[in-house]
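>> received
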Amino acid sequence: MSGYLRWILVMSMLKNPVYRAIVVYSDTSTGVIKVRIPALTGADSVVDVSYVGRTAYNGVWSVPSIGSQIVVTADDANLTNVFWVQVAPEATTDLQPQIDALFLGIFR
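>> returned
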């Protein structure tokens, strides 16, 4: 990863931090995902995950299982749009090189 791309990644993470979210509802037929973000909303508030960046394939949505922990980000402090942050793996079963390239290289 080039230095410029690394810089863009770090800046976007500072502007829009990522959070751990717990899936409380998901539906493969509609694509609806509802999560709790304990660090921001506490244990009781539930927010919807945006459809932006997601699509159905042959009428079936890829959604996380209820109870799963996922990574989300939001476009503002009011949680106007909450986005599911997903990693699209390359054609490999070992994700460690991708993780190293994204995160370990940032702090070198």
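>> The chain has one domain: 3-107.
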